Fold:
Amino acid sequence: MAQSRYPQYTWQQSRCNHWEREIDEAECFYTSLAKSYEGSGRMFFAITGFVSISVDITNGSTGQDVEDALRKAWLRLRYECPTIAARVDYDKERGKYFKTYKSFDPDHLDFHTEYWLSDTFIPITPNMHGLDWCNSDPLAPRVPTLFVITPPYNNGGNKATMHLDLVLRSPHDISESALGLAT
Structure:
């Protein structure tokens, strides 16, 4: 394997189930803006991603099946792009910011998986369409979070189609690299 020109940006295991790396210049820029802005109670440069989907519910499938499939896809994305579950924290001892990632403890995999999903996969029914919910400028969580919105569509009694709006809210310093990998 080739040696990295920038080893400080390569994920290194710091202790059991914990990985870290230094943040690069772009991540440092977004982190410093976020830190200087956090006193306002808002998140500077928060990312909002939005997509509306319609799913045909046929052959005994249910809305719960669709939600379960989305949960599995969100969890798979965490494994494929670990940055989506990372945080940027300041290490006082070393005087630097680090991006940190904690993998699931294999001895408690089900517990940690469900805990992470309950924090980052949020089904809601806000009595508005997802785009309106996005435009209401909801608070951005500290970690990337997928909101699954059931909008108040009137589909003329057509129960065979399920409409959902998916909204990703995230700090910019986390997702700017993860989103590039995910697309």
The CA atoms of residues 104 and 110 lie 9 Å apart. The two ends are 25 Å apart (CA to CA).
